[in-house]
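**User:**
If convenient, please work through this fold.
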Amino acid sequence: MSSFSRRAESWNLDLDRYFNRIVPPSPLHKVPTPIARFLGYRKEQEQDVGNVLGAFWSCVGAFLGLAIIAAVFNNTESIQMRHPPALIASFGASAVLEYNAIRSPLGQPRNALLGHTFSAIIGVGITKLFRLRSDFEKIKWIAGAISCGTASSVMLLTGTVHPPGGASAVLAATSPEITEMGWYFVGIVMWGTTLMLIVGLVINNIQRQFPVYWWTPLDVRKTGRADVEVGPDAKGGFEERDEGKHDNDSDDEKERPRAIAITISANKVTLPEDLALNREEAEILERLRLRLRKGYPDSLRGAMSARSSTEVTMVPSHGMGSDSDASAVRL
């Protein structure tokens, strides 16, 4: 059992290794600058504003985001027919991420939209199973706990962790108004999250940047070739940290500098056949050879004198250095 536990510690399901191979790269650099700016695109990563301005825009964003969601819901007849709550509580938690911690990976569009959607689907599905029992009202707290736990696991495995999504899963089981909506609740959550993101694109891009990325902070063309872990950098953005190099030895070898063996003895200097040196480099190696030669007894120096630095031959330079007419030497 202990060996199984140790093996399990290294298990890692990374769906992005497969999805990112087919996800197209961002086209935002082709969009006109005024539009691209309000979609989060910047030619260079920008520092975030101080917390005073951050607090102001966070307040404005949260107010407008929730107010617009409530206004749309309360003035849409098809939604009102379902008798929804005045405001879905999980949206309040999302507002903190979408308008306050806007650089957090937990608040990026992929996490917000898919995290809420997956959680709502799981919450409604599990609740419907529990409602098959006549004593549902007494055990609905169990349905809420199972829904939240399952949603948390699914979000982690799919790279869509959004903490307010857990609240959506719980509400599907414990809030009578939402429980009665059934699968309609999934559409409500998706629509509300979309409205919140639209408001975020406007408010958060006036003096800040949102989103930092739409799908992933990585170059989707690279993630198909290697496992990459993402972590925050020192500037409030994200950076790539390569993992799994042992699984991609062939790719790494192409990028790793080639090792070159140079052998220096008292008698000669041996170089690879395809390595050409300029005169200055050859003189450095020759001085190293002479230093080694001085350490030999006088009786052996005479025998070595025949193989002196005069054996250096000139070969044409292959584009070495900045001087086009420079010569190279081969020892």
